[in-house]
Design brief:
homodimer; 142 residues; 3 helices; 8 strands
Chain lengths: 142, 142
């Protein structure tokens, strides 16, 4: 990959080694909107994705379905400008704080991917997932 | 498990079937503090953990290391009262909104588990993880 030829990236390998990548070479990533602190989405990164994210300052994930790097918003325009990157206590989960272009993060055209809310009856006898966020724009690709 | 004998839980199985459990029967869970909207931690749930969480209204996870249900805070007292449960667009990630007892979620005694911040030099030539949150209390078990 091109990113591997960037001297800056070679020099930052120690911080990449600090991350505990799972058995598939991936780390879970939580994306939070900086202004609202809304949790927008959840995705995965491999080493190249995290390197690329830091290099360009925009969220780049590893698409497990397409098995390739996924520059979030490259097709929809809903880029995520990365303002802050955190690593958790076990060094195996990443939290991105981002500026979400167009305020839409979900491939369904919603603000956040977490639009299904569990509603439980008072008796606790029944529960169901209800959609509680509107579609703001129609999207097919993200 | 006892939880399987609760009629209420039997009746809620359809909403549990809506969740796309991974190949290990688990789903990733993001825990967010209701008042501050801080992302506190990340963990995993299996079907029994999610059932139990809804049943008691407190976060119960699946400990992959101990291979058993983990009632968060049962030893430290740092219980998480669950106010809202969301499921993402692919139905394979859960977001919990909680009231965090004592405002401490991390087993290191910190408010949040995401206390390591990536600091990159302006040139981008070097980067390192820096601890940016204080330890509020000494904990050994959580």
């Amino acid at each position: 990959m091109v990113v591997k030829n960037v001297i800056a990236v070679k020099n930052t390998s120690s911080w990449l080694n600090k991350v505990h990548w799972n058995e598939h070479g991936l780390v879970p990533v939580i994306v939070q909107q900086a202004e609202t602190k809304d949790v927008l989405m959840f995705a995965w990164m491999n080493r190249d994705a995290l390197e690329k994210t830091v290099e360009i300052g925009e969220a780049v994930f590893w698409s497990r379905s397409r098995k390739k790097l996924w520059h979030k918003g490259e097709q929809s325009g809903h880029i995520q400008k990365v303002l802050d990157i955190r690593l958790d206590c076990d060094s195996d989960v990443i939290l991105l704080n981002v500026k979400q272009v167009d305020n839409i993060a979900c491939h369904t055209g919603r603000h956040s991917c977490f639009f299904q809310q569990l509603v439980v009856t008072e008796s606790g006898a029944r529960a169901e997932w209800q959609i509680v966020e509107p579609v703001l724009t129609d999207l097919e690709e993200d």
